[in-house]
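Worked example 4.2. Below are the chains of a multi-component assembly; read each line carefully before continuing.
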Amino acid sequence: MSVRVRMPTPLRKFTNGADEVAAQGQNVRALVDDLEKSYPGIKERICDETGKIRRFVNVYVNGDDIRFLQNLETSLKEGDNISIVPAIAGG
Amino acid sequence: MANPTAARWIASERFREPKKVESVLDLVGETPLLEIRKIPEGISPGVRIFAKLEGMNPGGSVKDRPALKMIQEGIKSGKLAAGKTIIDSTSGNTGIALAMIGRVLDYPVELVMPSNVSAERKRIIGAYGAKVTYSDQLEGSDGAIRLCRKILEQNPDKYFKPDQYFNPMNSQAHYETTGPEVYRQTAGRITHFIAGIGTSGTIMGAGRYLKEKNSKIRVIAVEPDDALHGLEGLKHMATSIVPGIYHEDALDEKIPATTEDAYAMVYRLAQEEGILVGQSSGAAMHATLQIARKLRSGVLVTIFPDFGDKYLTTNLWVGWRDRMSVGNLKFSI
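Applying the procedure described above to all two chains together yields the following structure tokens:
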């Protein structure tokens, strides 16, 4: 089962510049672990030391914020679109 | 009996004569300095900390200053002729300032912002009647910069672009107003000037003025510790489109701020000092406190770019009680 993950600019250095990657996972937690396997170092940017999604990082599944779904336990199905969106920089 | 804090305030009998002005634009600048007295507990008694409350500007942020200066220069130079539309890319506060100024001076305003700017910002800009084009949220404010360039290229004669990241009038506004105000408000005793970097206009302009007055004044920038951060309004220079007005060699020091420390400081400022500010002010205060702890004496001035009401729906306040319960604040700082 494969889902598509859209990457924000600050994380593209882990994905060789790709703005979208394919990844696997039954839920968001497994997805983040799978991303870490393919792109080492990316997990600690998305999650804090307790493993929770960092508060200033927003993860959307098909446009819905996982905070209003089941957070890391939000289940995924084939073809889902995931976006990782950071807060906004200056000016 | 009043408690000692309340008794001291009652005894001071401070009143202010309100200003009377002709235009809302006359209210830009001349913002107050607030002494931060409770949070710095334990620092040397010879060190004082002041925050310049830029949220007191009529558009609600420090950005009123550069926006007004860039528009003034556009009009004077003839580039902003009658019939032109003002356009720029922004993460929000400059957009609010331009939208407000456009209304007062009768110019239409179009703004390009990442689609994930706070709901409050979108509504404020909408209330002023400006048109907004949203850029891809994954591309951040650099995506807005690029999209704005594209819109401008398609229709160059229609627009006047203040170009806040590259217009020297941005920092000039701070050279002419913010810097002199800070110097005067501290009676020339300022020793450290600390400000966050977004476009870098504040630190470049006010910093240059202060260095000219007294080259010993330390000019210190605060920036997010990482490319992926939650400090809306601040820029991580190493991974961003570097503003043309930014010159790193004008700085004495750069201090990184983590998003978590900045957020925690926002909660402390609200609960201990009674002032609700945005996350960039939290970052500035956090850095200022770090500097203060190393000093025996000094007058530190930092900039609080705006108040906190524009961020109440953002992640700054989502679930904050889980980490910081009221009356029992625990911080890493």
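Take a moment to check your reading of the output against the notes. Chain B has two domains: 4-56+178-323, 64-160. Residues 325-333 of chain B have pLDDT under 50 and may be disordered.
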